[in-house]
Amino acid sequence: MIKLRLKRFGKKREVSYRIVAMHSTSRRDGRPLEELGFYNPRTDETRLDVPAIVKRLKEGAQPTETVRSILTKAQVFEQLKA
């Protein structure tokens, strides 16, 4: 199963995340299938590749709870229904 989840990177206490599509059995920081966006919790900055995310969701990828809340704030699910 493919999941949309966060991949951690950055220095200690200065963490930021990439939103990636990867197999559910692979490691957190393992090789992703595709990088779909960026999330910085310290500045609350997000950059999303919305067409690629919509494509992955239509193929059946399941977002984690954190990624689901980020996508809801960016109204990505509204574009999925259209």
Give a nutshell description of this structure:
This is Small ribosomal subunit protein bS16. With 82 residues, this protein is of the alpha+beta class.
What would the CATH topology be?
A: S16 Ribosomal Protein, Chain: A
Total separate domains: 1
**What top-tier CATH class fits best?**
Alpha Beta
Distance between the termini: 25 Å
Q: Which strands sit side by side, in order, in the main sheet?
A: 4-3-2-1-5
CA-atom Rg in angstroms:
12 Å
General form: globular
Order of helices and strands: EEEEHEHH
Extract low-pLDDT stretches: none
For the record, the CATH architecture stands as: 2-Layer Sandwich
Descriptive overview:
With 82 residues, this protein is an alpha+beta fold. It has a single domain, classed as S16 Ribosomal Protein, Chain: A (2-Layer Sandwich). 29% of the residues lie in helices and 40% in strands. It has 3 helices and 5 strands; from the N terminus they run E-E-E-E-H-E-H-H. It has helices at 50-58, 65-73, 76-81; strands at residues 2-11, 14-23, 34-40, 45-48, 62-63. It has a 5-stranded mixed β-sheet with strand order 4-3-2-1-5. A hairpin with a 4-residue loop joins strand 3 (34-40) and strand 4 (45-48). The N and C termini lie far apart (25 Å). The model has no long low-confidence stretch (mean pLDDT 92).
